[in-house]
Amino acid sequence: AQLMARGLPKQKPITGVKQIILVASGKGGVGKSTTAVNLSAALKSVEPNKIVGLLDTDVYGPSVPLMMNLHETPLLTRDNMMIPLVNYGLQCMSMGFLVDDRSPVIWRGLMVMSALEKLLRQVAWDAVDYLVVDTPPGTGDTHLSLIQNLPLEGVVLVTTPQAAAVEVTRRGAVMFQRLKVPIIGVVQNMNTVVCPKCHHSLSLYGHGTEALTSELGVDLLQDIPMDPAITETTDQGKPIVVALPNSSQAEAYKTLARKV
Ligand code: ADP
C-alpha cells in the first residue's frame, strides 16, 4: 500500500469543497453509515453557518438513499456535473442515486474505480465546508484511491467493541497511519444498552476499543449506545439528529461533531 501511495499524481481538492473527512470501519454492519449520516447532520446542527455535504462511496451497498430518504436521479449542470440531492439541509451524493435500487450491482474493480472517479470529480458541490465521506467496509481499493487522490483532513474510524471487529479496525488504522492519513479518532458504537425502564446502562463487551485507542495513540471520540430509536429513525430515512434533535442520542452525535 505504501508503494502504491508514492509517486502518484498529486492529490487534488474537490471543486466546491473545503474539508474532506472520511468515515471508515474494519467490518461491515458496525454502524459506519449511521455514524456518517448523523455526523453530517450533527455538524450542520452545531455549526449552522457551515455547509455540509455527504458523499457515499459504497458502490455495492450504498446507504445514503435509504438513510437520507433520497430517491431521485440527480440533474446535470450544463457542463455535465451532477447536482447533489438535498435533504435536511445536507447536500448528498451516492452511487445509489445512479443505479436501480433493486438490482444487484455486479461490477468488476475497474468499473468501481471509474464510478468512484465520477463521484469525486463530476459533482457540482455548492460551497461545501465539510464533506463527510462514507466509505465501504474494510480497507480496499476505494480507500486507497481516496487517499491518493484527495487532500484529507482525516478519518473517523467506527467500530463495535467485539474482539473480531476491533482486530480489523486495528489493521485499518495501521494502514491509515502508514499512508499518513490523520486518524481523528475512533467512535465506539453499540457497546452499551440503556434499559428503557430503569435507565441503567449495560455494557455488552468491555474494553476492547479502549485498548485499541491507547495502543494506537488515538482518541476515543464518542460512545454511541445501541438504541432502537437509532435503528428506527435510520430506517425511516431521517437521522436521529434530525428526527429527535433533543434526545441524548442526538447529543452524543453532536458531541462527536464538536470533536471532529
Ligand atoms: P455499516 O455502515 O457499518 O455497515 P450501518 O450504519 O448500515 O452499518 O448499520 C447497520 C445496522 O445497525 C443498521 O440497521 C442501523 O440502523 C443499525 N445501527 C447502527 N448503529 C446503531 C445504534 N447505535 N443503535 C441501534 N442500531 C444501530
From TrEMBL:
<dbReference type="GO" id="GO:0016226">
    <property type="term" value="P:iron-sulfur cluster assembly"/>
</dbReference>
<keyword id="KW-0479">Metal-binding</keyword>
<comment type="similarity">
    <text>Belongs to the Mrp/NBP35 ATP-binding proteins family.</text>
</comment>
<dbReference type="GO" id="GO:0005524">
    <property type="term" value="F:ATP binding"/>
</dbReference>
<dbReference type="GO" id="GO:0032981">
    <property type="term" value="P:mitochondrial respiratory chain complex I assembly"/>
</dbReference>
<dbReference type="GO" id="GO:0140663">
    <property type="term" value="F:ATP-dependent FeS chaperone activity"/>
</dbReference>
<keyword id="KW-0408">Iron</keyword>
<keyword id="KW-0547">Nucleotide-binding</keyword>
<keyword id="KW-0004">4Fe-4S</keyword>
<dbReference type="GO" id="GO:0005739">
    <property type="term" value="C:mitochondrion"/>
</dbReference>
<keyword id="KW-0411">Iron-sulfur</keyword>
<keyword id="KW-0067">ATP-binding</keyword>
<dbReference type="GO" id="GO:0051539">
    <property type="term" value="F:4 iron, 4 sulfur cluster binding"/>
</dbReference>
<protein>
    <submittedName>
        <fullName>Iron-sulfur protein NUBPL</fullName>
    </submittedName>
</protein>
<dbReference type="GO" id="GO:0046872">
    <property type="term" value="F:metal ion binding"/>
</dbReference>
